[in-house]
Amino acid sequence: MSARDRSVIEMVDAAVRHKQVMLAYQPVVPAQNVDHVAFYEGLVRILDETGRIIPAREFIDAIETTETGRIVDCLALEKGMLTLAEHSDLRLSINMSARSIGYPRWMQALERGMRRDPTVAERLILEITESSAMVVPELVTGFMEKLQHKGVSFALDNFGAGYTSFRYLKQFYFDILKIDGQFIRGIARDPDNQVLTSALATIAKQFDMFTVAESVERAEDAAYLQAIGIDCLQGYFYGAPSVRPAWLVRDDRRVRA
Fold it and tell me: Which residues cross the membrane (predicted)?
């Protein structure tokens, strides 16, 4: 496992050096109006030496605590802020580790992006994984409070997958709670997942948080989630992450015309 992690880190290091880092965009749709998009999530991708696109799930755990992980967070944020500046009607979420809060380049990218376009802050959602938020909870709460005053929203990602202390959950004031996909896949036929997801949704409602169900892949699961009042749905049933989303293709066609 150690050798595998070293290989992964070397691959990501090479991608960073050659600027082979990009965002893939996945739609998040309102559960009661699925023909519209509430916002997009910008998911980081890298290219390996063969040009193959590598999704974050294949490398993010290996680099989470490393300098490479901080740089990847910086690149994702820089690309996300630029995308928001170029598309004034877009709302976008960007993933980050809580470890990047004190990283100078990351903070500079955030502040520079908000100075460049005053509307960016209110269209930016920062997604922090449950596991990384628990590493430095006091730092996260202070960071969130400062940026929420400027209009930035925060999502607690992969909720239910980690070990959130409910004492901290009460203090965090996340705007959005994203329920981990392990509770969503097959939920229409899984009584255990139905109970767990309902409980997580109740927690979100109590703390006035918007709910997003991740990994929605089937019509029957989407229908069940709509019926129990989940606010938004995200997953392959509504669209796979794409480095060339429809709105970007339309812009390119407009420029060429």
Answer: none
Torsion of CA 220, 223, 225, 227, to 10 degrees: -140
Measured CA to CA in angstroms, residue 173 lies from 141, 148, 232 at distances of: 8, 10, 19
Single-letter residue type at 78: E
Q: How many domains does the chain have?
A: 1
Assigned domain for 160 exists: yes
* Each residue's pLDDT tens digit, 202-218: 989 998 999 999 999 99
CATH, residue 156: 3.20.20.450
Q: What is the pLDDT of residues 113-152, one digit of tens each?
A: 999 998 999 999 999 988 888 888 889 999 999 999 999 9
Give me the half-sphere count of Cα atoms (radius 13 Å) on the Cβ side of residue 42: 26
Domain that holds residue 228: 2-252
39-47 and 21-30: which strand pairing? Answer: antiparallel
Task: Answer for the pair 164, 133: CB distance below 8 angstroms, yes or no.
Answer: yes
Is 136 within the bounds of a domain?
Answer: yes
DSSP state of 52: -
